[in-house]
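Project outcomes to date are best conveyed with an example. Our students and postdoctoral researchers have been running inverse folding experiments weekly, and each run begins with a structure described purely in tokens. The record below, which covers 313 residues, was selected by the lab manager from last quarter's runs and is presented without edits.
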């Protein structure tokens, strides 16, 4: 079949237009930089970013800092070099990550803090934060203890990763809530990682030090509760000890159902992941956003657990 000159030009024009359109609608590459993929909440969140990324026009790359502050900073630097449009961070140390975040902002990368925010003085170096109000999570834990022990109790606190934003705020919120009450925290220790094994080791030490004086435990995360419960069980102290954790992950749900954990304060990481990408897309598209976005907490115990959809992590 013979093609006319006008037909050939029209065909070329259509091809060029198609290529331009494909380029205009190409997915923007973003990075979810997990502090440690061994942490269930971050492993689950990474899956949510990958699952829903295309809905926001993103190609998602997941990077694992493996609990190391220097590695995390290097991953931010690598993301800048690879010209990612946005990065999402849950830092191992909210202060140590600041120089890298500053470089990302200077390079025009959208910076979203995920689940953990920077200190107030450094928040100008990120575009937005999406997560729960960890101070309120600590307060909710305090409420649970006040309800359980209206006449007072002696308890211990197993903190989250030392220096982590969530650890600081959960501790502060908890102790602010119980201040002036008859709830007495007789000991408080923090691990170097969000590690079940470290939580177990801390609890073993607390059991040796305080024994049956321990009536309750506030542990900053549900997988830490797993280790706490193992230590208490080995000491024949698990039954009757009131244990509260934060996350609402699969371990937390399983433990509440089994009765080894009394309360889990649930974060919804699917909603958190979607909101984070929604905010990043808005910034990239030049729209105004709210810099702080809190996701609602759910308080889950044996009485109401069937009202919630079990998380599949």
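After processing, the design step wrote out the following sequence:
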């Amino acid at each position: 079949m013979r093609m006319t000159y006008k037909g050939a030009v029209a065909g070329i024009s259509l091809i060029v237009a198609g290529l331009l359109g494909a380029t205009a609608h190409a997915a923007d590459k973003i990075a979810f930089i997990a502090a440690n993929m061994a942490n269930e909440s971050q492993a689950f969140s990474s899956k949510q970013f990958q699952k829903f990324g295309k809905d926001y026009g993103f190609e998602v790359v997941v990077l694992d800092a493996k609990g190391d502050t220097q590695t995390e900073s290097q991953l931010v630097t690598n993301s800048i070099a690879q010209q990612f449009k946005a990065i999402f961070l849950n830092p191992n140390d909210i202060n140590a990550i600041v120089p890298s975040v500053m470089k990302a902002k200077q390079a025009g990368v959208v910076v979203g803090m995920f689940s953990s925010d920077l200190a107030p003085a450094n928040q100008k170096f990120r575009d937005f934060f999406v997560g729960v109000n960890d101070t309120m999570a600590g307060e909710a834990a305090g409420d649970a203890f006040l309800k359980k022990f209206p006449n007072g109790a002696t308890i211990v606190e197993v903190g989250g990763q030392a220096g982590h934003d969530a650890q600081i705020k959960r501790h502060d919120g908890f102790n602010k809530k119980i201040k002036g009450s008859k709830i007495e925290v007789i000991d408080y220790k923090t691990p170097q990682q969000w590690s079940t094994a470290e939580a177990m080791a801390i609890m073993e030490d607390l059991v040796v030090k305080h024994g049956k004086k321990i009536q309750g435990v506030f542990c900053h995360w549900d997988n830490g509760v797993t280790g706490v419960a193992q230590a208490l069980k080995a000491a024949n102290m698990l039954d009757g000890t009131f244990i509260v954790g934060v996350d609402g992950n699969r371990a937390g749900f399983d433990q509440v159902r089994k009765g080894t954990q009394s309360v889990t304060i649930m974060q919804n990481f699917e909603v958190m992941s979607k909101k984070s990408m929604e905010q990043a897309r808005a910034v990239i598209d030049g729209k105004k956003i709210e810099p702080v976005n809190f996701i609602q907490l759910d308080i889950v115990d044996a009485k109401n657990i069937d009202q919630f959809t079990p998380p599949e992590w």
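Confidence is low (pLDDT under 50) at residues 1-24. DSSP finds ten helices and twelve strands in the chain. The training component of this project remains on track.
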